[in-house]
Structure formats: structure tokens, C-alpha cells
Amino acid sequence: MSAGTVAVVVPDDLAVPSWDLYELSIPCTVFGKPQPDLADPWYDLRLCSAGTGEGPAPPASSALAVRTRYGLDDLAGADTVIVTSVPDACVQEDAPVPPGLTAALRRAHDAGARMVSLCTGAFALAAAGILDGRRATAHWMHTAQLAKRHPEVRVDDSVLYVDDGDVLTSAGLTAGLDLCLHLVRRDLGAHVANQLARRMVVPAHRPGGQAQFIDLSVPGTDDDGLAPVLAWAQERLHEPLTVDDLARRAAMSPRTFYRRLREATGTTPLQWLLNQRLGRAQSLLESTDLPVERIGELSGLGTAGNLRHHFLRQVGVSPTEYRRAFPVRAPRASGAAAHPPR
């Protein structure tokens, strides 16, 4: 098995904003440090910049400037191309992905390179047409924007990463590490990937998807008529609540309440209640060591079995697996103090 050449794109013309350093550091850590006792040769890592290494210093918002002898033309000679991010304006302000980058990505793809994106890097692959007709993901905060701008891409916001053969995409931040370890597993085998994960003190494979990290209590509402009753309901999630109860509290008919809530939040009253209760359960699992049975009661989801059912369906992992992701917890909570507003 051969590791090959990994080319990592530094798309912002040498200047790397501090908030993008994490994603950039992931492939550098996984593929850039030789591990001769695990595989020899290891990967050949190359940072490929759109700039020349000359010119003015980066702006204050940038954490560092990259000086590298590789440019975008070198992407076509790599076995794997990784785009870790795009400029923030390409996500938040609908600015186009730099055309020089999209052209270089298309050339690399046409030359047979395996194409990979981490977090917002998916916007670059999508702009280059590489994700057309494919299933892909990105950070859950940006998947709606990705789907809106590129309807030809089948965006999945529930997974940590998507392996579509020669094109792979990941969710944000640590999900990029999950995907990079998956690439090592594909290239060099499970033993090498597992040993590397141990050295990095991370799980070799995390269960579930990024749904477990989405705040299920959102979306909120700007509807002044609904806000008081929703706040009232959030204080009483451990009690039996019905749509009629909420409508009565809002001084509306059930039909009117249903319509107003759907318009304001994009979801139904029952789904809103379920999301709030799951959000409460998530908070309790993260911050207390209460038994799952008690958390089911306090969140309004009832039995431990019902909590597990909804957790597996909505979050993608069991409550116990979810709790393992948050090992630092507050002391045991009890009584009413165990269900603070979320």
C-alpha cells in the first residue's frame, strides 16, 4: 500500500485567518509527520498556495503567512488534494470562490487526484463542479447555505464525513480529523490508522454523526406573540404538554398556533417540543452524572427506552455514547435544579 502525495490548499493567498488554523493543522499533523515504524514511506505533504510568497504582510485578522515553494499548479500532480477552508466572504457574503482555485481543483480532479474538503472547503469543490450529483457535507452551520447555493449537490448535514470514493467531504473542525484518519485507514490499513489515533490521543473512529453536536433547541422565533408561550413551555418540559396546552396559553386556537409556529420556526409544535426535550436531555448528559432513567423524566421524554429511541433517531448515537463525548461534567444535580432553561 502506498501513501502518496497529499497537497493541501492554502486558498487565502498566503494569509491564514486564525479561525482557519485548526483545519489547516489537521492534515499537516496527520500527513506531514513521518511515522516510519507504522509505514515507510509515509505521505509526502505539500502546502500549495495561491500566492508567491512575496508582497505585503498579512492583515491583522490573519494568524500567519505561509511561505511555500508549491503553488496551485502543483495540485494536479498530487494523489490527494485537500481544501481545508475558503475565505469567509465566500460563505457568509456569497462572494465567489477564487476562479484560479476552482480551475486548479478541476485540473487536479481531471488528472485523477482524490479530492477532499474539510468544513467550508466543500464550497470550493462545489464551485468547481466536483460535487455535482454527489452526496457531501460541511459544518452543520453552513450546510443550508451550501445546499441553497449548489442545489445540484446532495447535502447531508447529519454525518461527520462522506466518503464518495474519489471525493470525500467532512463536517467542521474535529470532523476533519475523523476524515483524515479515515483516509489513512483506506490507504494504509486499520492498524496504522488506529496506532496513529492512539498517538494523537483521539478515537480511531467516533460513533454517530454531527447531528449529535447540533443544538436541537434551535431555531428560535422572532414572533412576539409566540415567544412568551415558548419560554413558558421550556420551563415545563418535564411536564406533560400538548398542542392544546400551548395554544391555550398563547390564547390561540390550535390551528392558528400550529400555523404561527410553523411560519416562525419551520417546524411543527410536536417536533418543536421533541427538539426542546432532546436539547434538555443533551444538556443534562453533558453537565450531570444523572442516570439515563432520571434524564428521561426530567427532559419530558419519559422512560429510558423512549429517550434512547429518540436519541438514536434524531442524534444518531445512544445517550451513553453521547455522554462519553463530554467527560468533564459538573457534580450530580438533583430535583428542579437539574433542569435549568436551555
TrEMBL record:
InterPro entries (UniProt xref): Class_I_gatase-like (IPR029062), DJ-1/PfpI (IPR002818), Homeodomain-like_sf (IPR009057), HTH_AraC (IPR018060), HTH_AraC-typ_CS (IPR018062), INH-QAR (IPR052158)
What is the organism lineage in this UniProt record? Bacteria, Bacillati, Actinomycetota, Actinomycetes, Streptosporangiales
Entry protein name: AraC family transcriptional regulator
Coiled-coil blocks: none
HTH araC/xylS-type domain residues are 227-325
Question: What CDD domains does the database record attribute to this sequence?
Answer: GATase1_AraC_1 (cd03137)
**Does the record's keyword annotation contain Transport?**
no
Q: Which GO terms describe its molecular function?
A: DNA-binding transcription factor activity; sequence-specific DNA binding
Q: Which UniProt keywords apply?
A: DNA-binding, Transcription, Transcription regulation
